[in-house]
Amino acid sequence: MADAPAAAPAAPAAPGPAAVLPPTDPAELPGVFARAFNSGDLAAVDRLFAPGAVFVTEPGTAVTGEARRAANAAFLALGVPIALTLRHTYVCDDTALLIGDYVISGTGRDGTAVHLEGSATDVARRGPDGRWRYLIDNPSGTDRP
């Protein structure tokens, strides 16, 4: 009787939200953010923010700490994916200005249509580990209050 063929090795598991790490290139931060956001994992999103980072909830209003996390959680709760297109990256030493466009469009968890879009102006900082994280997340860009 012949031996059964050896089973093929299992394919590596696709990286989950826990595998989302801040990038070493600031131009990659928006794409990494989109993957974390679209995973629905707030912890994965939060890893992409520097300690003390600021989130601009509307022109003229910025939050940090738990309020920043709550603002991100509110966007995640929509249950609609984000698409980001980076237009410009300007880097000086350990600071980068990221300008890009975003669209959050689809049907929310509650069945209502969701459509948010804008041009963001964000500031990122390279940490001591060489990875870039948001220092200022300003999805309102240059909108006026």
From TrEMBL:
InterPro entries named in the record: DUF4440 (IPR027843), NTF2-like_dom_sf (IPR032710)
Disordered: annotated segments: 1-22
Alphabetical list of Gene3D superfamilies matching this protein: 3.10.450.50
Residues of the DUF4440 domain: 33-133
Pfam family, one: DUF4440
Protein name from the UniProt record: DUF4440 domain-containing protein
Lineage of origin: Bacteria, Bacillati, Actinomycetota, Actinomycetes, Kitasatosporales
